[in-house]
Amino acid sequence: MYEICPETAEDEYEVEALYDLCFAPGRTALSSYRLREGVPRVADLCLVLRDSAGIMLAAIRFWPVRVGGRRSLLLGPIAVHPTAQGEGLGGILMRDSLLRARATGWDRVLLVGDAPYYSRFGFARLDNVEMPPPTNPDRVLGLELREGAWRGISGPVTRDAPPERPGGLVERGAASHIQMACQELPHPRGARNEHESAAGAASDQRSDGP
């Protein structure tokens, strides 16, 4: 069995260690990280996946950003431990977190990643949305959680800096009164995905160059 839970402060060290293991040194130098610096994460949607022994095998995070002045979600990083590569855990976290994003009132999601991988989750290229350089425009992808949510939205992606909640809690979703609990799920036997990288085809973790 696996368990997916919202990330807590106690998970911070393990999540950062997982990202360090999966991604090359200097990952925080990527252009997408400039949109995250000093901005609270969206706590409802930052999830960790552990096995029955409590070992963290995968993690996903989201940040708020602005596109054309409209609030949007920036997905990533998402990572899967190399020992669990190919078991479909990245896809499980993607689908679960996107369901939670819709349930908590978000309208649209943005990421930087490989279109052939992320198209299976409904992501498509955003032609008029500009990530900070040197991001390859072909890798700027979006998903509508509400029909028409990306229609007419264009321009540069900029930082969103909402105030932190009392006690230093990170930002919650638009409908944060909805309780997003942990959930258990069986091992996805037969769901191996040979196209999933050791990092879960992690968004915004490959070269931002053209």
Short overview:
The chain has 210 residues and is an alpha+beta fold. The protein is built from 3 helices and 10 strands, in the order βαβββαβαβββββ.
Task: Note down, in words, how this protein is organized.
There is one protein chain. The chain is built from three helices and ten strands, in the order E-H-E-E-E-H-E-H-E-E-E-E-E. The protein has one domain: Gcn5-related N-acetyltransferase (GNAT) (Aminopeptidase, 3-Layer(aba) Sandwich). It has helices at about 10-20, 90-105, 115-120, and strands spanning about 1-5, 45-50, 55-65, 70-80, 110, 125, 130, 140-145, 155-160, 185. Mean pLDDT is about 85; it is low at about 165-180, about 190-200 and about 205-210. By secondary structure, the protein is α+β, with helices and mostly antiparallel strands. A hairpin with a 2-residue loop joins strand 3 and strand 4.
The backbone outline, from C-alpha atoms, is globular
Q: What is the name of the CATH class?
A: Alpha Beta
- Determine the strand fraction and express it as a percent band: 25-35%
The residue ranges in which pLDDT falls below 50 over 5 or more consecutive positions are 166-179, 190-202, 205-210
Number of domains: 1
Please give the share of residues in helix.
Answer: 10-25%
What structural class do the secondary elements suggest? alpha+beta
CATH superfamily: Gcn5-related N-acetyltransferase (GNAT)
Q: Averaged pLDDT, please?
A: 83
CATH T-level fold name? Aminopeptidase
Q: What count of helical segments does DSSP give? A: 3
Order of helices and strands: EHEEEHEHEEEEE
